[in-house]
Amino acid sequence: MAEKPATTGLSTVSIIRRMSYYKVLGLEVEPFSTSPDPMFFYESGGHKLALTNLIIELRLRRGLSVILGDVGTGKTTLGRKLIQALSLREGFVFHIILDPTYEDERAFFSSLARTFGITIPADSNVSEIKESIQDFLFQKAGKENKTVVLIIDEAQKLSEISLEVLRVLLNYETNSAKLLQLIILGQLELHAKIVNIPNLIDRVSFKYTLNPFDQDEITEMINFRLRQAGYKLNRSLFTEDAVKEIYRYSHGYPRQVALLCHKALKNLVMNNKMVVDNRIMKEIVDEEARNGWHFSERIMSPQRRTF
Question: CA torsion, points 54, 60, 65, 69, in degrees to nearest 10?
């Protein structure tokens, strides 16, 4: 006879209740997921500036925009928010590449063709694929007056050959506008790659570096996400001292803030408490450190907001 799984004495109802911790706390959905959900995108001053400028660049069809930022600063979510902001406006067509790792020029051009929905014969050479992409862009942007947008995430993975492919695509234009609107989102090491290609760097119309949040922005981010998740009670779920501890440990990185807040809310439910205070946060942070998961600051000071 198979052994029954070990239990801690909790009833099935209690276990399910704890799995849906957000409902116990007066929330309708989980507020601190690390998935790039535009619904939970908190617009810090930097994110709002980047988003506004990207929208302007796309509407004017200026060509290439570059957003840099360390891991966990919200680049991917910014891209999703941009799509959400413009997808309801007539005339915008969005395409996304999530992992721009390619062996050679042909592999990249072939991937672009598939991304755009272009059928390419298996024996097509680079010139033929390139011509098909050019024809597609002239049809969509030139004749149909569509704004064709390509967003490349994790762009620090782009090789020098791939960056040259992008430079070629930016050469496709009418007398007044680029046929392809290109937004590349990458980690800080992408900066060195771009500046070392003079005929690419001078094509960047908008460039911006996302930095971590300050303590006030962390407070606003936490409250914003709780409201988005349906929290309506008058009392705050996080004390001011708890937020200070979150800031101290996370250094202002949004993804780390979300992870810490998720652990804190689970702690409330599991211990039948109603408010995350400094003691709870210190316990969580100390446990992270004991287990070897201490988070260290990686990005530079706020003066690095320039590209």
Answer: -10
Task: Give me the residue spans of the domains in the chain.
Answer: 45-210, 213-302
Out of 3.40.1440, 1.20.120, 1.10.8, 1.10.357, select the CATH number for domain 213-302. Answer: 1.10.8
Note the pLDDT tens digit of each residue in 92-142.
Answer: 999 999 999 999 999 999 999 999 999 999 999 999 999 999 999 999 999
pLDDT digits (tens, 9 = 90+) for 22-76: 788 889 999 999 999 999 999 999 999 999 999 999 999 999 999 999 999 999 9
